[in-house]
Amino acid sequence: MKTEILNKSRLESLWDLYKLGGAVMTSEWTTGNYSRHISRRAVPAFSRRIERYSDLPRAKLPRRITKVFEAHPRCQAVIAITDMRAAKRALKAAAPFSSVIIEEMI
């Protein structure tokens, strides 16, 4: 079993994605202000970018992903947690050591 090494920034980005329901449009997963300098954020651990018209059958996608595609018909891609069990396990293991997670859980 492959273990992911999570530093503070990767853990915070995983926590942000988890708080947003586990799946967001790629247009929402950006950094920067609302003028000229906007860039994509890195895809967190246990997650990946899923295209609307990919090779994956729609019936096998989790409900949180299909819900985003149904709510936004023009959305082309989604950033989603693909291994939710491993993500929850990593967040739970890191909770005593991370002040960001502890403050937002309270």
Provide structural commentary.
- The chain has one domain (8-100).
- It has helices spanning 8-19, 63-71, 84-94, 99-105, and strands at 23-25, 30-32, 38-40, 47-51, 77-81.
- α1 (8-19) crosses α3.
- It has a three-stranded antiparallel β-sheet with strand order 1-5-4. A two-stranded antiparallel ribbon has the order 2-3.
- It contains four helices and five strands; from the N terminus they run αββββαβαα.
- Helix content is 37%, strand content 18%.
- It has 106 residues and is an alpha+beta fold.
- Count the DSSP helices: 4
Q: State the end-to-end CA separation.
A: 32 Å
* Broad structural category: alpha+beta
DSSP, total strands: 5
What is the overall silhouette?
A: globular
Q: Give the overall pLDDT as a whole number.
A: 83
What portion of the residues fall into strands of 2 or more residues?
A: 15-25%
- Unreliable parts: none
Spatial extent as radius of gyration: 15 Å
Order of helices and strands: HEEEEHEHH
Provide the helix percentage: 25-40%
Main beta sheet = 3 strands, antiparallel
Number of domains: 1
Strand order within the widest sheet?
1-5-4
